[in-house]
Amino acid sequence: MTMRIVVGVDGSDHGNAALRWAVSEAEFHKGEILAVFAWQLPLIAVPGAFDRDEMERLCRAFVEGVVARVVTTTSVPITTLVAEGDVSASLIEAAKTADMLVLGSRGRGGFAGLKLGSVSQECAQHAACPVVIVK
Known about the structure:
This protein is an alpha/beta fold. It has helices spanning 13-29, 52-70, 87-94, 118-126, and strands at residues 4-8, 32-39, 78-84, 100-104, 131-134.
């Protein structure tokens, strides 16, 4: 049975470290990676202010670009997933059948003094699989 590792990707230094760690772990266990980037439309009262298809395309290009920059060589299969919705909920859902969920300790949030980000904390509390938090 192949080890399945889900990793949250957001382009932050901690997120990139988590992606590298997940790839290394998958190489060791001959596993596979699902790299997940989640997004939400901003709450705005102007109908049509955002094009959902364009956001999806931009997000897909973003996650694929991050993976390509961070993981330059590997034999591990890496699949990307763009999920629309709450970041924590999207990662928890993607990891329902995973062997491991890997996250950076902090992401792109603006609270520099925090030791652990809200997404990693939420996932650690609610994911159905073991969660590795990489600094």
